[in-house]
Amino acid sequence: MPDHNSYLQQDILHKPLEKHGLLEEFNLPPKVIKFIRTNRDKIFVAIAGLMVAILAWSYYGHYVATRNDQAAALLNKAVTQEDVEQRAAIFNQVADQFGGTGSAMWAKIELAHLAFDRDDYDDAAGRYQAVLGGLAADSPLLPLVQYNLAQALENKKSFKEAIDAYRKLIALKGFTGEAYLALARIYEVQGELIQVKEMLQKVLELEEVSLAVKNRVKAKLARF
Questions:
Q1: Which of 2, 179, 203, 205 has the fewest CB atoms within 10 Å distance of its CB?
Q2: Residue 109 is assigned to a structural domain of this protein
Q3: Model pLDDT for residues 84-100, shown as the tens digit of each residue
Q4: Which residue has the higher pLDDT, 135 or 151?
Q5: What is the span of the domain harbouring residue 87?
Q6: How much of the chain exceeds pLDDT 90, in percent?
Q7: What span, in angstroms and rounded, lies between the C-alpha atoms of 66 and 49?
Q8: Residue 89 lies in a domain
Q9: How many distinct structural domains can be found in the chain?
Q10: What pLDDT score was predicted for residue 198?
């Protein structure tokens, strides 16, 4: 009688061994294992691409952080310069070399301030206008730059443009009173007394305006 163990040994010897590897160790379903092995090359390419993307993003983040630090350091160097021309030169360097950074934006604003300080209102207005073009509608810098632009236009006696610039400030909290006072000032220079009274009256209606300012406005209105 044939030995049962002999048949079992022969069966094991002649039966193809089932493929067994790492995927089987994870107890994955056979269909999943088959899919992975069939599309192995594509999967490896996808994984490699993902790794490259992750590394590239990490490098870009480091690059941006380093660039921002360099721009901030150079901006700080400019601010501490006592010589105006040297300060302007470094501000220009920050604006040119580190475009798109917050430091570059501040450098451009400071260059506009320097132009204003030397009474070059045409240059200052152009620089403020350029900065405004790069600011988002919700930027906290927008009211300040808009106010500086309006002042530059007023000082260069471009009254129509100055009026338009000041009127844009009316809707900006904290600048409404200043805008009305400036408009009254321009209308008075132009001899438009009705508009002067209208602007001054609007100042009196604002809660944000101090009592001292309102008293001066009332005294001015009494002279008309």
A1: 2
A2: yes
A3: 899 889 888 988 888 78
A4: 151
A5: 20-118
A6: 43
A7: 26
A8: yes
A9: 1
A10: 96
